[in-house]
Design brief:
Blueprint: H1 2-28, H2 30-35, H3 53-60, H4 66-70, H5 76-95, E1 101-107, E2 116-122, E3 125-139, E4 142-149, H6 152-168, E5 174-180, H7 195-199, E6 208-214, H8 223-236, E7 242-248, H9 258-267, E8 274-278
Length: 279
């Protein structure tokens, strides 16, 4: 029995030594472990790299050794993120000349992700986030990039909602439309895009849309027939997407906004009747 105890202690000692050695190795190669990079990618960049505060913050958010980043001592994979950042900012500048952008985070390309995902804000709005996907391919020692983003949604959503509201309201008491447009798209989806581009098939979007209907103005019509009329209106204009129709037994006021309707529904959830249809 005593001999068994001694063997156990001896094994624990060996395991402890191996564990400590392993920890030391992980600490030394922390950057590589985090990014799942190759030996080539964890080579140190010669000299000190100068960065803007935004670039530095971006790397600090995804790096183990943050002090090295602050000192401008970067690994190859970190330099590659800066190269991607530069490409992304130039891409955005060309697409949206009237807007400015701030990169707040990056999820680098890895074995699990086929692209680097940048999160960003635009102009003076620091609470709304947009995505930019950056794809990179290396051939013959040259890396080429391609980017897609969804900031265009900030430009097209309001006009699109007005278009859907006008279309759906033919013969129906529709009062508001709320559309979610989130897919990332390329350079054609820029600040000059219009609803006409969508209507005429030059650009394609497939939003998730909620249509609010004032059920008190249905004049005794069945709700099913109201929804069928909305579907027919949308079909005639060949508008793509996924739709939810909410028919409210009453509304707070004529011309209520989506936010006002949502607040009204929440405050009166025990007494308000809401019929929901999807198509």
């Amino acid at each position: 029995m005593k001999q068994g105890v001694k063997k156990s202690i001896f094994l624990i000692g060996i395991i402890g030594i191996v564990a400590l050695a392993g920890c030391g190795k992980m600490e030394a190669n922390g950057e590589a472990a985090t990014q799942e990079t190759s030996q080539e990618e964890i080579k140190e960049v010669e000299g000190t790299v100068e960065m803007t505060q935004e670039q530095m913050d971006l790397l600090i958010g995804i790096s183990v050794n943050q002090d090295r980043v602050r000192e401008g001592k970067l690994y190859s994979w970190q330099q590659e993120i800066l190269n991607q950042y530069d490409y992304a900012m130039e891409y955005l500048k060309e697409k949206y000349q009237s807007h400015s952008f701030h990169m707040v985070s990056c999820d680098p390309k890895s074995k699990l992700n086929s692209f680097s995902q940048f999160r960003m804000t635009a102009d003076e709005d620091s609470e709304t986030y947009y995505d930019l996907y950056l794809y990179s391919e290396e051939a013959d020692g040259t890396i080429t990039y391609e980017a897609k983003d969804n900031f265009y949604s900030a430009i097209i959503t309001k006009p699109y909602e007005s278009y859907v509201l006008d279309t759906a309201s033919k013969g129906v008491a529709c009062i508001a439309v709320d559309s979610s447009i989130s897919s990332v798209e390329g350079s054609d989806y820029n600040e000059n895009m219009t609803v006409e581009d969508i209507k005429e098939g030059r650009l394609f979007i497939s939003p998730i849309t909620t249509i609010y209907v004032d059920g008190s103005k249905t004049e005794g019509e069945g709700y099913d027939s109201i929804v069928e009329q909305i579907k027919e209106n949308i079909k005639e204009e060949a508008i793509q997407g996924y739709y939810t129709v909410l028919i409210l037994s009453e509304v707070p006021k004529d011309g209520a906004t989506v936010k006002e309707l949502q607040t009204f529904m929440q405050e009166n959830k025990d007494s308000l009747k809401v019929e929901k249809y999807t198509f």
